[in-house]
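Reviewers of the previous submission asked for a worked example of the structure-prediction workflow described in the proposal, so we include one complete record here. The input consisted solely of the amino acid sequence. No template or homolog information was supplied to the procedure at any stage.
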Amino acid sequence: MVGIKDVANNLDTHEKVCAERYKSIERRLEAGSKHFDRLEKLIWGIYVLLITSAVLPTVISAAGG
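From that input alone, the workflow returned the following structure tokens.
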């Protein structure tokens, strides 16, 4: 039969393992968030490039003639 002390020890061990697991998950989420921030900046840069390349020929032809 399992005693109260055994259950308490098992619960303490479980809590420690879970706390470590949650810390690991938090670190991975943080790293993923930083990665997505970088990707978002790259996407905004591509938007600017596409819009500029679409508008620039019109501006040049209107100014030239």
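Residues 1-65 form one domain. We consider this example representative of the routine output the project will generate in years two and three.
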